[in-house]
Every structure is written in structure tokens, then in C-alpha cells.
Design goal:
The chain has about 200 residues and is α+β, with helices and mostly antiparallel strands. Helices cover about 30% and strands about 25% of the residues.
């Protein structure tokens, strides 16, 4: 006996038509995930290079810190740092006071190349700026604010530099409703910090 299979012409086209929207949705989500990974890698490298250069010898001031941050920001394409990014450089010192070492802020600079996006620093949030240098840091370390970076790990007089980079990530497909709710948001503020 010879049994012939039933005729199933066109079933592959029907299956493809059913799966195509799902495959497109996965591909679009992967595009945003890839862009987010790229932004994260750029921010990590930016903060690492900034902290490396800031910690090398020369004393930072308002002009030299801006030159450093401008040079760093110029290496970030395809990111739009001028409108969606921010950079902070903080100089921190371990200071002995009342028998304990605390990390105090000596200097803090923010990048002037940004026009609109200004998230607060996570190392220490300055409340008053003059020429993009924090103007409320007292000259006496006894009166300086405590930094949140590396608490309890610095020796008396040890100086470190913390460089923070922020980016307001814009997902291509954020708020895109696929029938069962909007897609998850990556970010929107992406952040990296390096301490040297």
C-alpha cells in the first residue's frame, strides 16, 4: 500500500506570515539594545580616559578642565554630547579630621559644552557654579563637603580624580505599543564613573 501525503501547498507562506511580525519586533528591539550597549561603552571609555588624563601631574583649573572635557567630548560620535551629554571632574582628597579620614571635595568642574542636559553629579552635588567651576567649596578642607566616592578607602592627603559621564539616551522605539503594552525603556539617563 502506498499512502500519499495530504496536499499542503502554501502552508509555509502562512507560517511565515504569522511569524514575520514577531521576527520584526525582535529585530527592532535588538537595534535599540545594540545602540544602548554602544552608548554604555563610549561613556565608560570617556570617563576612563578623562580620569587617566586628569590624574597626571598638571593642576586642573577652569580653563584646563574645559579643554580636557572638550577633547573628550570630541571623541564621542555618534553620540550627541553637546545636546544630550554631561561630564563632571571632581578632585577628592582623604583628610584627617577628629581622628578619622573622610573624603573631601577639593574641586569640581562641569562641562560647559552642554546647553540643556545637566543631571547632578553623584560624587557631590554643587549648588553654585562660577565659570563651570563649583564656587561653594571652602578653601579649608576641614569645612569642605564629604564626597560619596570611595568612602573610608583614602589615606590622609591621598588625592583622586573622579570623572563622571552622563548621556540622555533616546531609544528609537520607546513608547511603541506592540499590542500587549509599551516596550521597556532603556535608560533614559546612562552613566559611567571612573576614579584614578
Amino acid at each position: 500500500m502506498n499512502f500519499a501525503p495530504p496536499k499542503c501547498r502554501g502552508s509555509a507562506a502562512v507560517e511565515f506570515a504569522i511569524l514575520l511580525p514577531l521576527l520584526l519586533l525582535l529585530a527592532l528591539a535588538l537595534v535599540d539594545i545594540g545602540r544602548a550597549i554602544q552608548v554604555n561603552l563610549v561613556l565608560i571609555n570617556l570617563s576612563r580616559e578623562g580620569a587617566n588624563v586628569a590624574s597626571r601631574g598638571n593642576q586642573l583649573n577652569s580653563a584646563s578642565s574645559q579643554a580636557l572635557m572638550n577633547a573628550l567630548a570630541s571623541t564621542t560620535p555618534p553620540l550627541r554630547m553637546q545636546t544630550r551629554g554631561m561630564i563632571y571632574i571632581s578632585k577628592i582628597m582623604g583628610h584627617m579630621q577628629n581622628g578619622a579620614v573622610r573624603n573631601v571635595i577639593l574641586e569640581q568642574y562641569r562641562w560647559e559644552g552642554n546647553s540643556s542636559f545637566a543631571p547632578p553629579s553623584t560624587v557631590w552635588n554643587c549648588g553654585a557654579w562660577s565659570n563651570n567651576q563649583c564656587s561653594e567649596i571652602p578653601p579649608n578642607p576641614d569645612n569642605a563637603a564629604t564626597a560619596s566616592a570611595m568612602p573610608g578607602l583614602l589615606a590622609d592627603g591621598e588625592v583622586i580624580y573622579a570623572v563622571e559621564t552622563f548621556y540622555n539616551f533616546d531609544m528609537l522605539f520607546s513608547n511603541w505599543n506592540v499590542g500587549f503594552g509599551p516596550m521597556e525603556q532603556i535608560g533614559p539617563v546612562m552613566y559611567a564613573k571612573t576614579i584614578f
